[in-house]
Structure formats: structure tokens, C-alpha cells
Amino acid sequence: MKPCVNTGSFRDVEVITCFEILGKMGFRDIEFNIRPVMAEGYDKRELKSVLTDFGFNIVSIAGGWCDFYTSGDEQAKNVESVQRQLELADYFGNHSIRLFWGMLDKKYDSRYIRDNVVSNVRNLAEQNPEFTFLFENHDHFSLDINFLEGFFRSVEAPNVWLNYDAVNFERGGTDSMEALKRLYQWVKHTHVKGKTGNNISSLVDSEFKFRDIFKYLREHNYDGYVSLEYEAGGDIISNIYRDYMYLKRKINSER
């Protein structure tokens, strides 16, 4: 396991300042959130220059809108958005990209919906074999282990994987260890953040502990990245550094 930090954690910090802070703090492995380019109009050339100057290693790309539950004109909009994300990922030199299934509530569950999302994702994967697609469990259907297991078995695409987020599962009422055990064969990337009650907290102060999860990942020779996704507010710079050092110690313990 290797730690990295998600630059989306700096949501309220100007993006160039974010990279300068991370660079001066000694961070190098990052999950690069491209939202500033996608939604805020930042010059991608300027960002690439800063990334190069500090020697960052981009381990995956995140930060764009997508929804694979739709069809027709709505799905055409999804394809257009994802294509732009892929173009940016290619520009920044990394072909692993984090996506979501979409925001459809589970009350609309049907065989058609499940078949449609599989078809949409399979088409994306087949048309872009050079990319690795990391789908994150985030809400609604994606917190249902049965849905996820059925999805991955049905899509049968070698470049479609799970971005496993234990706290997202827990906050949605799904046992994160059960999810990890049943879905591990598709886990390619992981997110960690703190949880106190049902609120996001710093990792250091979290009531939810990752001990069993890290133990399971080590025992099963997980060699992917563990990305710190800090969302707790406060003194972001100090707290991210504190959480990252804590994460680094934890994933390297008991070896």
C-alpha cells in the first residue's frame, strides 16, 4: 500500500496555491482533482507547469461530472463530459480516472436500469481501452453490495475497477468490511477519511478505525494507493499534514 493525497481536499484553496503548499510540504504522490479546469476555467498549461516544477506523481485523475444511469440525449451529455475528462487525463499524463455511477435514487431500481448502466460503462471501457476507470462507491446504488457485485460481474471489462471508500459505505449504512471482502477482487484504489457519528472528521480524530481494513489489505497483498480525502474543514493545511502522517504510519504498521 502506498499513501497519496487527493488535491480535492483543498476545495477552498486557490489551485496554484494548493500545489505550492503540497510541494513545499514534501508531498509527491497525488490524486489530481481536475475540477479547477473542468468547472472553473483554469489554464491547464499553467497547472501542468506547476505540477512539473514540483515533480508531482499523478496516481489518478478525479473531479468531473458523470452519470451512467441515463439514456438518449442525457447519456450523450455524460459521454461528452467524460470524454473531456479523458482528454485532460491524457494531457496531464495519467490514464487512471475516478468516476461515479450517478445520482439515481434506489427507489427507481429495475432490471432496465441495471442493464443500462452496465451497457453504458461497458461501451466506455471498450472505446477507451488505454484508460483505467475507477468507480467510487458514493451514494444510492453504489452503496449496495449486491448491486456492485452484479455490476462488476456483468460488465466484464478488464479496465473497470472499484475505488473503495470505507467511510462512504459506513455513512450509507453498509458494512465496509463485508463490502471489502465481497468486492476485493475489483478494488484498484482506495479512499480514506475520518468519520465521527455520521459526520466527516479528520482521520486522526475519527471514531471509525481502519485497523481491520488495512490488515485485510495487507494480508491480501494490496499494492494500490490509499488516498487521503480530507473533507473536515478547519485548518486544512495543518490537518492534512497531520492526517497524512497518521495514515502513513498506519498503513506501514504491523509489517
Defining key terms:
10 helices, 8-stranded parallel beta sheet, 255 residues, globular, two-stranded antiparallel ribbon, alpha/beta, TIM Barrel, 44% helix
Overall mean pLDDT: 93
CATH topology: TIM Barrel
Q: How is the largest sheet built, in terms of strand order?
A: 3-2-1-10-7-6-5-4
User: So what's the overall shape?
Assistant: globular
Stretches where pLDDT is under 50 for at least 5 consecutive residues are none
> CATH homologous superfamily?
Divalent-metal-dependent TIM barrel enzymes
- Rg, Cα atoms, Å: 18 Å
**Alpha-beta content class:** alpha/beta
Helix content range: 40-55%
| SS strand fraction | 15-25%
Number of strands: 10
Report the biggest beta sheet as strand number plus sense, adding barrel if it closes. 8 strands, parallel
First-last Cα distance: 11 Å
- Specify the CATH architecture: Alpha-Beta Barrel
Q: For the record, what CATH class applies?
A: Alpha Beta
User: With helices defined by DSSP (H or I, 4 residues minimum), what is the helix count?
Assistant: 10
Structural account:
The chain has 255 residues and is of the alpha/beta class. The protein has helices at 15-24, 35-38, 44-54, 72-91, 111-127, 145-155, 166-171, 176-183, 211-219, 236-251; strands at 2-6, 29-33, 57-62, 96-99, 132-136, 160-165, 187-192, 194-196, 199-201, 225-228. The protein has one domain: Divalent-metal-dependent TIM barrel enzymes (TIM Barrel, Alpha-Beta Barrel). The strands form two sheets. Strands 3-2-1-10-7-6-5-4 form an eight-stranded parallel β-sheet. A two-stranded antiparallel ribbon has the order 8-9. Helix 1 runs parallel beside helix 3 and helix 5 (111-127) packs across helix 6.
